[in-house]
């Protein structure tokens, strides 16, 4: 991020970008992607040409297989075969005719997976020094984490909180936000003992349950013998059912992700739950998505930025270098090989 900004005269004629070659039916592999060379686009009035420097890959970017994608409510999030992949990126403005952006300024936008991006000025977020202290932190999934904790379940002092998928880009921050907002006990789930140890030793989780080490419900009962007040759910499936079984009366559940379905060939797979149990124990389930809460984004940036500066939170992430590494980065993330966010330097 410290490299000098390019000027329009030094922009190459071509750049590399990653296309989706085919949607996976089962396991995601690098064969589902293609790295191609394409002309660098020229900006028109009101457009911004950005030299991307960092991009994020996240499990939500795994191309979905759906029976009827055009009818899916979130079809705008789908990656379509033959098109460039997309996702959050931070880069330097190269040219921005007819806008108030200047060459060299840092912006955040959603056209990653390519070395140069042509972005509408209204969709380029200027990154100033008063925001997050590290531009890479703008590529975190911290907003989803913060929303789930603050608006989804309204974590309060004394709560016992269970975070599923706790070692991922969302979960590593959700547990920290829960602690900042007064949680007395924070428990996470993850896929390996190595990650479980990291949650406890590095991120301040009180306990962790490990997928595949025995029934999740039994492990959760041991970790939370008095039950849980809050579920921050990234996963669904067995882990959602376990949380329901262990929930105290009046527990609040925020459904932020659905990885148990999304990372299979059936992105719309369901989880059967007892509505009677919800009613009898007064349990609240709330699905929460960032695009419904953009009014809260400035508050999140202030809180996250302050926590990073004061050292009360960290931003766990891994970096790979080169746009050609983006397909591998996403495959490895889906396989559970990394802790925290995964970034690609371009």
Offer a concise description of the structure:
The protein has 346 residues and is an alpha/beta fold. It contains nine helices and 15 strands.
Mind explaining what this structure looks like?
This protein is 24% helix and 25% strand. It has 346 residues and is an alpha/beta fold. Helix 1 (142-152) crosses helix 2 and helix 1 (142-152) packs across helix 8 (297-310). The termini are close together. The chain has nine helices and 15 strands. Strands 3, 4, 5, 6, 7, 14 and 15 form a seven-stranded mixed beta sheet that branches. Strands 10-9-8-11-12-13 form a six-stranded parallel beta sheet, sandwiched between helices.
Topology:
Blueprint: E1 14-20, E2 33-39, E3 47-57, E4 89-95, E5 106-109, E6 116-120, E7 125-126, H1 142-152, E8 160-163, H2 171-180, E9 185-190, H3 193-203, E10 207-210, H4 216-223, E11 228-233, H5 237-246, E12 247-255, H6 259-262, H7 275-280, E13 284-287, H8 297-310, E14 317-321, H9 326-334, E15 341-345
Parallel strand pairs: 8-9, 8-11, 9-10, 11-12, 12-13, 14-15
Antiparallel strand pairs: 1-2, 3-4, 3-6, 3-15, 4-5, 5-7
Features of this protein?
globular; 346 residues; alpha/beta
Specify the structural class. Answer: alpha/beta
Instruction: Give me the Rg, rounded.
Output: 21 Å
Shape: globular
Determine the N-to-C terminus distance.
10 Å
Kindly state the mean pLDDT as a whole number?
89
Low-confidence stretches: 2-8
Beta-strand share of residues:
15-25%
Query: What is the string of helix and strand elements?
Result: EEEEEEEHEHEHEHEHEHHEHEHE
């Amino acid at each position: 991020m410290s490299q000098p900004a390019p000027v329009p005269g030094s922009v190459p004629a071509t750049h590399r970008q990653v296309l989706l070659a085919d949607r996976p039916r089962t396991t995601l592999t690098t064969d589902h992607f293609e790295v191609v060379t394409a002309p660098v686009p020229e900006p028109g009035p009101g457009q911004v040409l950005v030299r991307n420097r960092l991009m994020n890959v996240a499990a939500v970017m795994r191309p979905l297989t759906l029976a009827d994608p055009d009818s899916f409510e979130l079809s705008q999030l789908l990656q379509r075969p033959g098109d460039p992949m997309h996702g959050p990126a931070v880069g330097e403005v190269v040219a921005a005719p007819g806008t108030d952006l200047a060459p060299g300024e840092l912006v955040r936008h959603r056209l990653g997976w390519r070395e140069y991006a042509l972005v509408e000025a209204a969709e380029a977020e200027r990154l100033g020094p008063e925001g997050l202290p590290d531009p890479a932190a703008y590529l975190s999934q911290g907003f989803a984490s913060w929303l789930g904790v603050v608006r989804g379940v309204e974590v309060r002092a004394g709560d016992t909180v269970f975070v599923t998928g706790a070692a991922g880009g969302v979960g590593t921050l959700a547990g920290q936000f829960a602690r900042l907002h007064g949680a007395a006990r924070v428990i996470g789930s993850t896929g390996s003992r190595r990650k479980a140890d990291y949650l406890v030793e590095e991120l301040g989780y009180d306990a962790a349950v490990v997928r595949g080490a025995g029934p999740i419900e039994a492990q959760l009962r041991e970790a939370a013998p008095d039950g849980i007040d809050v579920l921050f759910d990234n996963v669904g499936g067995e882990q959602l059912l376990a949380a329901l079984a262990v929930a105290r009366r009046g527990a609040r559940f925020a459904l932020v992700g659905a990885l148990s379905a999304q990372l299979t060939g059936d992105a719309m797979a369901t989880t059967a739950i007892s509505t009677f149990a919800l009613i009898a124990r007064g349990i609240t389930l709330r699905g929460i998505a960032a695009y419904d809460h953009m009014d809260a984004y400035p508050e999140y940036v202030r809180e996250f930025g302050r926590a990073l500066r004061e050292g009360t939170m960290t931003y766990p992430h891994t970096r790979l270098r080169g746009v050609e590494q983006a397909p591998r980065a996403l495959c490895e993330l889906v396989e559970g090989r990394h802790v925290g966010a995964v970034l690609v330097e371009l």
